[in-house]
Write a structure and sequence with these properties.
The protein is mostly helical. The chain contains 9 helices and no strands.
Length: about 200
C-alpha cells in the first residue's frame, strides 16, 4: 500500500458520504496493491489498466458489503475482490475460441527437453526462456489451476494467505494445488511429445 499511516476507515466513511476527494484518495492508496495482484493474474487478452479499473468499479459498487470484522482489514477484502475479478476474467478468456499458441523459442524448447531429466543441467542464465516456458504451460491450464500454482509456487504465498485471498478452505487450496501440479506435469509431457514429433 502507498502509505501505512493512511486512515482507511475514516476514508471509507467519507466515501460513504459521497466525498469525491476521499474516493480519489482511496484509489490512490489502494492502486499499488490492486495493480500488483492484477499483474500476477492477468489474462493474456486483457490490458492491466482495464482490469485494474474493473476492480475499482466493483470495489465502489460493493463497498456497502464491506464491514470490518474480526480485525480483517479493508485491504484483505479488496485483495479477495481483485483475485476473484482476475479469476472471472481468466474463466471468460478460457471460454473464447482458442487462438493458436505461439511456437516456443529455442531457449524455451531447451528447457522443455530437460524438464523430465533426473539431473537438471539447464542454462540457468536463460531466465527469459524459462519464464516463457512456465507462462506457456500455465496458459494451458484451467483458470483455478493457474491461479493456485501462481499464488503458491511463483508468488510463494502460504496456504493460509491463498485461502484468505480466494475464499477457499485451506484443505481445498492443498487439494487444488496437488491436482494442478499433476495436470501441469501432464501438459508438459504432452508439449514435449508435440515438440519432439515436429522436430
Amino acid at each position: 500500500m502507498s502509505d501505512p499511516n493512511f486512515d482507511v476507515p475514516a476514508c471509507l466513511e467519507r466515501v460513504a458520504r459521497h466525498d469525491q476527494d476521499a474516493a480519489r484518495d482511496l484509489v490512490a492508496h489502494c492502486h499499488p496493491l490492486v495493480a500488483k495482484l492484477v499483474r500476477s493474474h492477468l489474462p493474456r487478452q486483457q490490458s492491466e489498466e482495464d482490469l485494474v479499473q474493473e476492480v475499482f468499479m466493483k470495489m465502489f459498487a460493493r463497498l456497502d458489503r464491506y464491514s470490518p470484522r474480526d480485525g480483517i482489514p479493508f485491504e484483505h477484502w479488496l485483495s479477495r475482490l481483485t483475485v476473484n475479478t482476475c479469476l472471472d476474467a481468466l474463466r471468460s478468456e478460457s471460454r473464447r475460441p482458442r487462438i493458436a499458441r505461439a511456437a516456443l523459442s529455442e531457449g524455451a524448447e531447451s528447457w522443455l527437453e530437460t524438464l523430465g531429466a533426473d539431473a537438471v543441467q539447464q542454462q540457468s542464465d536463460d531466465a527469459a526462456a524459462a519464464r516463457e516456458l512456465v507462462e506457456n504451460l500455465l496458459a494451458r491450464l484451467e483458470p483455478k489451476d493457474r491461479l493456485v500454482l501462481t499464488l503458491l509456487d511463483l508468488e510463494e504465498r502460504s496456504v493460509a494467505e491463498i485461502a484468505e485471498l480466494t475464499g477457499w478452505s485451506r484443505t481445498l487450496v492443498k487439494v487444488r494445488a496437488f491436482r494442478a501440479r499433476r495436470r501441469l506435469r501432464s501438459v508438459a509431457e504432452r508439449l514435449q511429445a508435440e515438440e519432439s514429433s515436429t522436430s
